Amino acid sequence: MQYLYFVDRLSMFTGKAFAWCIIILTLGGSYEVFVRYLLNSPTGWAYDMSYIMYGALFLMAGPYALSRDGHVRGDVVYRLFPQRVQAGIDMLLHIVFLLPGVAAMMYQGAFYAQESWTYMETSIFSPMGIPIYPLKTLIPFAGLLLFLQGTAEVTRCVWCMKHGYWPQRLRDVEETETAIMHQQEAEHGDKLGTGGQA
């Protein structure tokens, strides 16, 4: 369990650190709209900034989403299964698809980043020729974090198959729909408790 929480915390820290990219994207985009359409003086850096920030955010948010079970899943049938069966399905999919995929991402991404650093690669889409080798360095790093989180998810599946229930995940944020559902469950439980006492 300590390994699970260590990897979950690492993914949470990384995800929250890179979430600041959203603020930079919003401010930079708003500034670009203002100067382009009101002052008729577009910047030369806004596209490059959004390209880099969005790329970094996209890469580094994956482990965080996986740690929160936030990736999209076709669970119409899956959620009807007992938790042990769910864990077996998840473990199979993690071992067969996720872990080999992110291992390939780390392996190939390391060569990709190394090559980019060798000639200090700049963007061919940028009129300013911004360097993109730092962004490419995030590819193997994101792969490593995804691999660690993937092994934590396999550990979580083994725990569930052994004990019959999922171990608790770290909580920090919830979707509004999930928060409302939990609130309704709590209210429904309170009513049942009150009714039982009456």
Major beta-sheet overview? none
Oligomer: single chain
- Domain unit count: 1
* Cα radius of gyration in angstroms: 22 Å
> What's the helical proportion of residues?
over 70%
Can you tell me the overall shape?
A: flat
One letter per element, helices H and strands E, the order comes to HHHHH
Spans of at least 5 consecutive residues whose pLDDT stays below 50 are: none
The number of helices is: 5
N/C terminus separation: 41 Å
Number of beta-strand segments:
0
Mean pLDDT rating: 87
The class by helix and strand makeup works out as mainly alpha
Beta fraction: under 5%
GO molecular function, one term: transmembrane transporter activity
Function: Part of the tripartite ATP-independent periplasmic (TRAP) transport system.
Pfam family, one: DctQ
Protein name: TRAP transporter small permease protein
Please give a structural write-up.
The protein has 198 residues and is mainly α. The protein has one domain (2-170). 75% of the residues lie in helices and 0% in strands. It contains 5 helices and no strands. The chain has helices spanning 2-38, 46-67, 83-118, 133-163, 176-197. Helix 1 runs antiparallel to helix 4 (133-163), helix 2 (46-67) packs parallel to helix 4 and helix 3 (83-118) runs antiparallel to helix 4 (133-163). The longest helix has 37 residues, at 2-38. It starts with a helix and ends with a helix. The model has no long low-confidence stretch (mean pLDDT 87).
